[in-house]
Amino acid sequence: MAHAERAWTDKRVELIIGDLLRSGVVLAAAVVVAGAIIYLVRHGNALPHYRVFQGEPADLRSVSGILADALALRGRGVIQLGLLLLIATPVARVAFSVVAFALQRDRMYVVVTLIVLGVLIFSLTGARL
Amino acid sequence: MGSAPIAEGGLNVLEFTILIWLFSLLAGFLGALTGLGGGIVITPLLTLAFGVDIRYAIGATLVSVIATSSGAAAAYVREGFSNIRIGMFLEIATTVGAIVGAFLAAKTPTAAIGVIFGIVLLYSAYVSSRPRHDRALDSRPDPLASRLKMDGSYPTPEGPTAYRVHAVPAGFGLMFVAGVMSGLLGIGSGAVKVIAMDQAMRLPFKVSTTTSNFMIGVTAAASAGVYLSRGYIDPGLAMPVMLGVLLGSLAGARLLARAQTKLLRLVFGVVIAVLALEMIYHGLSGRL
């Protein structure tokens, strides 16, 4: 990095967070659009079915299932991957903040941010109550 | 109120998707112009007009909330209004609350969710229709806020202005409530978050609104994990909602500087109030 010697000021951290959030949203939206095209070309003539709640099939509920569906280029799987990227954007922001507070040697906020990250990871992986 | 939902009219997936996308575009546009948020009208619209089950509607709306929050926060953070330390500290309360709310959503009858949704909707419309002005800033230091390094400054036409933060425990408690609401109803709970920072912690208005927006994405991500594993997030429905609200709110934010929003806010406020009353009515009559 060309500017590695520059201090990790709050301002610099804020700029990086801004870029991170913007790229995450743009990437997620692009993947969703790609999935939407596949989905609408293949299933545009089907009838929607949202009146009665059945819940999504198991493969669209977990990270591994979504990845498998997306790699098989199933429209709904690709869209779900885009939504997953969208959900991951704030998580990435929090993860980056841990590093940024550590570089600023702000130990208290490293702990605060790790707690938030822990709650988010619990929600995305362990929450099956 | 007795009209059949549009989805009963035999629309196919393509027509349904385009229609939902157009409504979401409009909702996102008006939500950004009026500052009320576009996501808040999507769930009532999907359930009342399209006959979508409220759990699918909540899942789709939550995803769109993450998109608009992250998109807007990207701009605010760069301008230096949001206070990242306050946001991060309070996110402990909102994320834990969001997970609690998302679990409650599975245990609560859909009719009750509809009624609660209507009440929160009315309250949000009321809060955001009130005139906004900063109160005199309280310059006495607060020991806890100082220990947590929350005091900051923000850009004003007169240059950077310093502010001090107060009542951290009260703000933290209100943020937990905001998190529960967000997880239960799939909304950003911006209104409760702003109250917590504006009224309790005495932050300048511009700082509280932008920091609230900054926090909404993280809060919503916490409930989204639970929603996803419960099968509430349907890609076919979330896709047009997310793409519509995102595009609409970006366009609305672009236009915001030039638009006359007073009348718009009033019209959108009335729309929200009508939707809120319909949600409560449908919930109470057991039709959700």
Account of the 3D structure:
The complex is a heterodimer of chains A (129) and B (288). Chain A is an all-alpha fold. Chain A has one domain. Helices cover 71% and strands 0% of the residues of chain A. Chain A contains 4 helices and no strands. The N terminus of chain A is likely disordered. In chain B, helix 5 packs antiparallel against helix 11. Helix content of chain B is 73%, strand content 3%. Chain B contains 11 helices and 2 strands. In chain B, strand 1 and strand 2 form a beta hairpin. Chain B is globular, with a radius of gyration of 19 Å. By secondary structure, chain B is mostly helical. Chain B has one domain. The mean pLDDT of chain B is 85. A two-stranded antiparallel sheet of chain B has the order 1-2.
At a glance:
Chain A is an all-alpha fold.
Task: Throw out a few tags for this protein.
heterodimer, A: 129 residues, mainly alpha, disordered N terminus, B: mainly alpha, two-stranded antiparallel sheet, 2 strands, 73% helix, 3% strand, globular
Arrangement of strands in the largest sheet of chain B: 1-2
- According to DSSP, the number of beta strands of chain A is 0
| Most extensive interface, chain pair and sizes | A-B, 69 and 68 residues
User: What does the main sheet of chain A amount to?
Assistant: none
Strand content of chain A: under 5%
Share in helix of chain A: over 70%
| Helical run tally of chain B | 11
Unreliable segments of 5+ consecutive residues of chain B: none
Form type of chain B: globular
The secondary structure category of chain A is mainly alpha
By oligomeric state, this entry counts as: heterodimer
Number of strands of chain B: 2
Radius of gyration of chain A: 19 Å
Beta-strand share of residues of chain B: under 5%
Estimate the helix proportion of chain B, in percent: over 70%
